[in-house]
Design a protein that fits this description.
single chain, four-stranded antiparallel sheet, 12 strands, 22% strand, DNA damage, DNApol_IV, nucleotidyltransferase, DNA_pol_Y-fam_little_finger
């Protein structure tokens, strides 16, 4: 019989906004939005003081400002967030090598076999949260269970600065009484579709057979069937490679001329090159993304023979893509992405491609 896994999901509380409040005491206790501006852009993260007004990540700045007139916009500092994230991960690795980061502010840990401390996932989670607070002055929430789905959902139950445990014994009761909109892996649109079918809680979802769920939702139907029964066999995967690296900018006022667009593109290329160098990867495909003021979005890509090896090569490729386009309306966003790459330690044969 397989040993029951012990999985922890650690989720930092309003991470980006909390870092800004930590580094700037004048922001403490105030509604803060990281990213965007008063007029343009999108909120990347919101402090809990801002969330009380309904401000959320991915919300447009205009809507956020309407909801919270006193909202303070702060430019993101990803190098600082990465610095603290690395500090937190060092704590994780003291307890287990099976750490799967989902982003800078959250990760799964498999502590079935722990490197130090008592063999209790709950006690380990409590100790990790204490260590994070002591070393970074930031709070984290934790979910503890026997699989990734339940640990992820559990970490949200007592947020912020809380912990929740779902044991094999109480798992089905927990799932039965959980709203489907709170299921990890069920988005807003799917939740609304399920609600229209009369499916509001886990106990309702569990009544639908596998074949019907697959018919309605494709491959995802299998996942819904299994998680409604507390089944999730996905392991914690510590080695997840990036598939791409990118940078983009939303402008305060729409841009109309190629000179203005090229000037902004050079700044975006600078940021992208810095991130690309840190990724230790070799990219073959460069993609330009642009978005009109009415949110209509387009992309244009170029794949080279070999690899992008220098900043000037990146800049020239970006300019070629930009000047190959005919812009018919004002541009509110530009972005660049490098993709189709492999990490340096791999020695795989290279498939040659034709420039276009």
């Amino acid at each position: 019989m397989n040993k029951i896994r012990k999985i922890i999901h650690i989720d930092m509380d309003a991470f980006y906004a909390s870092v800004e409040q930590l580094d700037n005491p004048e922001l403490k206790g105030k509604p803060v939005a990281v990213g965007g501006s008063r007029e343009r852009g999108v909120v990347a993260a919101a402090s809990y003081e801002a969330r009380k007004y309904g401000v959320r990540s991915a919300m447009s700045s205009k809507v956020a400002k309407r909801k919270c007139p006193d909202l303070i916009f702060v430019k993101p500092r990803f190098s600082r967030y990465k610095e603290i994230s690395n500090q937190i991960r060092e704590v994780f690795f003291e307890y287990t090598d099976l750490v799967e980061p989902l982003s800078l502010d959250e990760a799964y840990l498999d502590v079935t076999y722990v490197k130090k401390g008592k063999p209790s996932a709950t006690l380990i989670a409590q100790e990790i949260r204490k260590r994070i607070l002591e070393e970074t002055k930031l709070t984290a929430s934790a979910g503890v269970s026997y699989n990734k789905f339940l640990a992820k959902v559990a970490s949200d139950v007592n947020k912020p600065n809380g912990i929740f445990v779902v044991t094999p014994k109480n798992a089905q009761d927990f799932i039965d009484n959980l709203e489907v909109r709170k299921f990890f892996g069920i988005g807003k649109v799917t939740a609304e579709k399920l609600n229209k079918m009369g499916i509001w809680f886990g106990r309702d979802l569990k009544q639908i057979d596998r074949f019907e769920l697959v018919r309605l939702f494709g491959k995802s139907g299998n996942y819904y069937y299994e998680i409604s029964r507390g089944e999730d066999l996905r392991p914690v995967q510590p080695f997840r490679e990036r598939k791409s690296v990118g940078a983009e900018q939303t402008f305060f006022t729409d841009l109309f001329t190629e000179n203005d667009l090229e000037s902004e593109l050079l700044g975006i290329a600078d940021i992208l090159w810095e991130r690309y160098e840190r990724s230790n990867a070799k990219a073959r495909t460069l993609t330009l993304k642009y978005k009109y003021a009415d949110f209509e979005q387009h992309t244009r890509s170029k794949t080279i023979t070999g690899w992008v090896t220098g900043k000037n090569e990146l800049i020239e490729g970006a300019k070629d893509l930009l000047h190959s386009e005919t812009f018919i309306k004002g541009i509110r966003l530009l972005g660049l992405t490098l993709s189709n790459f492999q990490h340096e330690e791999k020695n795989e044969p290279v498939q040659l491609t034709i420039d276009f």
